[in-house]
Amino acid sequence: MKKKKIFITFDYIGSGLSSFGKELERFEIAGADKQYVRANAVIAKDRVKVSASKVSNPKFVRYAWRDTSIGTLFNKEGLPASSFTMEE
Fold first, then answer.
1. What 3-state DSSP class applies to 48?
2. DSSP letters of 12-45?
3. Is residue 88 very low, low, confident or very high in pLDDT (cuts 50, 70, 90)?
4. I need a surface site. Which of 10, 14, 20, 39 has the fewest CB within 10 A?
5. How far apart are CA 50 and CA 3, in angstroms?
């Protein structure tokens, strides 16, 4: 059975995650081929659920991975999440 989404956890989230009412953007997801596509991301309690219909078995996620990216993920205290990649 192939999974369709990835849940991301963070070490330091303060009192929780927030997008302050805006849609989460700048997430990309890829399968084993590392061909990244734009992803849907939502906050699910203290994690972020990331998926894309074009990727049936996701392995990698990256966030705000472009030089001009403006992040949309914060902790509830207003500190932004840093850009990251889950590549090995």
1. strand
2. --TT-EE-TTSPP-SEEEE-TT---EE-EEEEET
3. low
4. 20
5. 11
CA distances from 5 to 11, 25, 81, 88 (A): 20, 16, 20, 18
Tens of pLDDT, residues 60-84: 999 999 888 899 999 999 999 999 9
Question: What confidence category does residue 2 fall into, taking pLDDT thresholds of 50, 70 and 90?
Answer: low
pTM of the full predicted structure?
Answer: 0.90
* Angle, CA of 12, 4 and 86, to the nearest 5°: 40
Pairing label, strands 47-51, 40-44: antiparallel
What is the token pair recorded at 38?
């734009």
CA distances from 3 to 48, 50, 59 (A): 16, 11, 10
Beta bridge partners, 63, equal 27, 84
